[in-house]
Write a structure and sequence with these properties.
The chain is 23% helix and 33% strand. It has one domain: YaeB-like fold (2-Layer Sandwich), CATH 3.30.2310. A 5-stranded mixed sheet has the order 1-5-4-3-2. The protein is built from 3 helices and 5 strands; from the N terminus they run αβααββββ. The chain is α+β, with helices and mostly antiparallel strands and 106 residues long. The protein is globular, with a radius of gyration of 13 Å.
Length: 106
């Protein structure tokens, strides 16, 4: 089931702390010197840049965010039926793969 407004759904789940942190994201945060606060604290800057409605387990969305001067990409899976999100992964986008705005793939 797809959220009616994916960005609003993601932001609402974060505000309500209806979040599941996957094993994968927990490993990547350590490797990439990122924190949960970077992800949660940048909620007002979220923009969906890619949608994967037919993703393997749940519809997911690649979100651009900015934390201070840092640009982030966060992959959220949306579980509309259970009213929560899963944070799958997050990374600092590579300028070799993304345009200067970090929102469009090269």
């Amino acid at each position: 089931m797809l959220p009616e407004n994916p960005l609003e759904f993601i932001q609402q789940c974060i505000k309500q702390r209806a979040i599941q942190w996957t094993y994968h994201i927990n490993m990547r945060l350590r490797e990439r010197s990122m924190t949960r606060q970077m992800i949660l604290g940048s909620i007002e800057t979220y923009e969906i840049i890619e949608s994967y409605p037919d993703d393997k387990y749940l519809p997911s969305y690649l979100v651009y965010a900015q934390h201070g001067e840092q640009h982030l990409h966060i992959l959220f899976a949306t579980d509309v039926a259970n009213r929560n999100i899963r944070i799958v992964t997050a990374y600092f986008p590579d300028i070799e793969e993304w345009e200067l705005n970090f929102k469009t793939r090269r």
